[in-house]
TrEMBL record:
Its EC number is 1.5.1.5, 3.5.4.9. NADP(+) binds at G169, R170, S171. Keywords: Amino-acid biosynthesis, Histidine biosynthesis, Hydrolase, Methionine biosynthesis, Multifunctional enzyme, NADP, One-carbon metabolism, Oxidoreductase, Purine biosynthesis. It holds the Pfam family THF_DHG_CYH. Residues 8-121 form the Tetrahydrofolate dehydrogenase/cyclohydrolase catalytic domain. The lineage of its organism: Bacteria, Bacillati, Actinomycetota, Actinomycetes, Propionibacteriales. This is Bifunctional protein FolD. One of its GO terms (molecular function) is methylenetetrahydrofolate dehydrogenase (NADP+) activity. InterPro entries: Aminoacid_DH-like_N_sf, NAD(P)-bd_dom_sf, THF_DH/CycHdrlase, THF_DH/CycHdrlase_cat_dom, THF_DH/CycHdrlase_CS, THF_DH/CycHdrlase_NAD-bd_dom. Transmembrane segments: none annotated. Belongs to the tetrahydrofolate dehydrogenase/cyclohydrolase family. It comes from the Bacteria. It catalyses: (6R)-5,10-methylene-5,6,7,8-tetrahydrofolate + NADP(+) = (6R)-5,10-methenyltetrahydrofolate + NADPH; (6R)-5,10-methenyltetrahydrofolate + H2O = (6R)-10-formyltetrahydrofolate + H(+).
């Protein structure tokens, strides 16, 4: 068996094109350009590259960008103050704090300084609660990577109802919300992580595997049930994911490549949700 690739590039391009149309409509109707503010603390090269990529994609989608770059020695209080300024700025519609942040910063305090109405990366407690409760009356924003994964699974007609999904990873902005969104789609969800006992045996029971553990080539091909759907949400040095791609491709039915799978979907959903936020802040029903 050779797995079919779940490519995110084309679907992401469609999403960005639609976001661009909606952004142009807002510009024409209200004279307002949706704006995404990015906050980067320190000079980590990978983080700086991610921020530039998001800014470039924003420009192509007709979404304005504002960049705030703070020194590595920034304190929690200083970062929170900067984020609150953006939260209070009516010209900013979405806020992205590039993570991880330096060790001295309380990342959760920084996330919670983001106005929930501008939390287009889905990192606040309110957004997590909305995903967990699946409340249609107050949907909040989906965490960008898990939300992108769900769109990709839907595009490839992956049946989730009744399926057993194993999420390897428990990050509050990736693993945990991914499980909540899968549960809302009526999958049976098991959370696992690098310290889970008998992890390979557990993974072999999964119809859908979400790898988000942050370790290169962590999930091996012989861990997988034949015909499983494998989503690699990891990104490690050298363009390597959390799944051993060559091994897994011989067992899985569908698999995401790294790069070109989940990554483009993350950015596309971030931009889409920035336009959603701008529409809501202008009193317009998002997506209408």
């Amino acid at each position: 068996m050779t797995a079919e690739l779940m490519i995110g590039t084309d679907l992401a391009a469609e999403m960005v094109a639609k976001a661009a149309e909606r952004a142009a409509a807002l510009q024409e109707k209200y004279g307002v350009q949706p704006c995404l503010a990015t906050v980067l603390v320190g000079d980590d090269p990978a983080s700086a590259t991610y921020v530039r990529m998001k800014q470039n994609r924003s420009k192509k989608a007709g979404i304005g960008s504002r960049s705030v770059v703070l020194p590595a020695e920034t304190t929690t209080d200083e970062l929170v103050a900067e984020i609150r300024k953006l939260s209070e700025d009516p010209e900013v519609h979405g806020i992205l704090l590039q993570h991880p942040v330096p060790a001295q910063i309380d990342e959760r305090a920084a996330f919670e300084a983001i106005d929930p109405g501008k939390d287009v990366d889905g990192v606040t407690m309110l957004s997590f609660a909305a995903m967990a409760l699946n409340d249609a009356s107050d949907p909040g924003f989906r965490s960008a990577t898990p939300g992108g994964i769900m769109r990709l699974l839907a595009a490839y007609d992956v049946p989730l109802e009744g399926a057993h999904a194993v999420v390897i990873g428990r990050s509050p902005i990736l693993g945990k919300p991914a499980g909540m969104l899968l549960l809302a789609s009526n999958a049976t969800v098991t959370y696992a992580h690098s310290r889970t006992r008998d992890l390979p045996e557990l993974v072999r029971t999964a119809d859908v595997v979400i790898a988000a553990v942050g370790k290169a080539n962590f999930v091996r091909g012989d861990w997988l049930k034949p015909g499983a759907v494998v989503v690699d949400a990891g990104y490690n040095e050298g363009n390597v994911g959390d799944v051993h791609f060559e091994e897994a491709s011989e067992v899985a039915r569908l698999i995401t490549p790294v790069p070109g799978g989940v990554g483009p979907m993350t950015i596309a959903l971030l931009l889409e949700q920035t336009v959603d936020a701008a529409e809501a802040q202008l009193g317009q029903c998002p997506g209408s």
